[in-house]
Design goal:
The chain has 16 helices and three strands. The chain is an all-alpha fold.
Length: about 425
């Protein structure tokens, strides 16, 4: 008995020492990434304001594409695959080069200044992963600890830009391998996430908290309506993934020179912007998400955003896919609600989390992000939406390097790549 107690004491002592060390690095990573993310967010807000006040900038998007390609060539970063590289590094225990951070930072700023259609949170994941990896090596941590700090960086960046620390904590643990949660990263990711969120809140930069009007009661009828919407959103999420990957492949096939590719893509976006007569589909499109949650959306908005984003990212411009995903889900959900006469505001919210769940294969993160963005009052609707969207969205993903470890429909180990 005494021997067992002694062994347990030594185990707790050793675990506590390791926990203190990891917590120190988690907090440090969260603070560094939080400050970088705040600077990134402030610049993003500034260039978005400049672009909206000077619509003529869209005409220079082809030249901006050349500038981005030149930047990546200058930094010897031509093979950078974005968030895919971070996910692959976490799976294989490889490193993420520090040069990814300035590349994606500057590339995303340029893309948004001149009117490319992209998000910023996907870029933040790359920033966080790159900084976390470099911090681990600078502190001479073991590989397994370095990868924990990489996940901390991703959580801190996501939390700082979205203002959703719970979802940010889980997302970096859930997105790597679908069906397996990396629970060893739970405590450090929680700490880093709240550190990033605290810094962003201090500077008034945590955002994306939305309201829903006219939330209906949860009944059998309203639940079935949400299930139908979630099933349709699963199809939309597949369409978005297919479109993003197809346009990327087409641009690489017909424009093998990256400079030609970026110039062609920038020209297409400039022409499409002139044809649509506004900037609704450029940048992140947060203002359209707000309108959709208020019950107003152009019927073809979700298709146009898919097109704009697919061309932008496929041509080599930089940014994230997550906020465009929210745009697509919100506008599609709002359209659905208006067509059937059922709370377009709730349908927009359900559409956002359903499409996000479908393209990332992260149901727990999607559920948490719905709570943090919209509140807990609609919890049963969001739970149904995430469950059905995840199950029916197939094995598509925004990220080719994501692995589906367990089947979505059976308790079967499949260990396959996404499409």
């Amino acid at each position: 008995m005494n021997e067992l107690l002694k062994d347990e004491f030594h185990h707790v002592l050793a675990s506590s020492r390791r926990m203190i060390k990891i917590l120190f690095y988690s907090i440090l990573c969260g603070i560094i990434v939080g400050f970088v993310s705040c600077g990134f967010a402030a610049l993003m807000n500034f260039v978005t304001t400049v672009r909206q006040s000077c619509p003529v900038l869209i005409l220079f998007l082809p030249l901006a594409g050349l500038l981005i390609v030149g930047l990546y060539h200058l930094l010897h970063n031509e093979q950078d695959t974005g968030t895919n590289l971070v996910i692959a590094a976490l799976q294989s225990k490889d490193d993420v080069p520090l040069k990814m951070a300035p590349s994606i930072f500057i590339g995303t700023i340029i893309t948004h200044l001149f009117g490319g259609s992209a998000g910023r949170e996907g870029a933040a994941l790359q920033l966080g992963g790159s900084i976390g990896s470099s911090l681990g090596h600078a502190m001479k941590l073991r590989d397994i600890d370095t990868h924990l700090i990489m996940m901390c960086g991703m959580s801190a960046a996501f939390s700082a830009l979205f203002g959703t620390p719970m979802a940010a904590t889980v997302f970096s643990m859930e997105v790597i391998s679908v069906g397996i949660m990396h629970y060893s990263a739970l405590v450090p990711c929680v700490v880093a996430s709240f550190a990033g969120y605290a810094i962003a809140s201090h500077f008034g930069l945590s955002e994306h908290i939305f309201g829903i009007s006219n939330l209906p009661d949860f009944t059998l009828k309203t639940g079935l309506i949400v299930v139908i919407l979630a099933m349709l959103c699963a199809l939309v999420s597949g369409l978005m993934c297919i479109s993003l990957h197809t346009f990327s492949a087409l641009f690489q096939k017909y424009f093998q020179n990256p400079y030609y590719r970026a110039f062609a893509g920038g020209t297409i976006i400039a022409v499409l912007t002139l044809l649509t007569g506004g900037q609704d589909y450029n940048g992140t499109g947060v203002q359209i998400i707000v309108k959709a949650l208020a019950g107003t959306a152009f019927p073809a908005a979700f298709l146009l955003k898919i097109l704009f984003t697919s061309v932008t990212l496929g041509a080599g411009f930089k940014g994230g896919e997550i906020v465009p995903t929210f745009f697509v889900g919100a506008t599609f959900g709002c359209l659905f609600g208006n067509l059937i006469g059922f709370s377009p505001s709730l349908c927009a919210a359900v559409g956002m989390v359903s499409v996000f769940c479908g393209v990332t294969n992260c149901p727990i993160s999607s559920l948490l992000i719905s709570f943090e963005m919209f509140g807990y009052e609609g919890m049963p609707f969001y739970l149904l939406a995430c469950a059905f969207s995840y199950a029916l969205s197939g094995y598509f993903s925004l990220y080719h390097s994501q692995i589906i470890v367990y089947s979505k429909m059976h308790t079967t180990f499949i260990n396959r790549n996404t499409r």
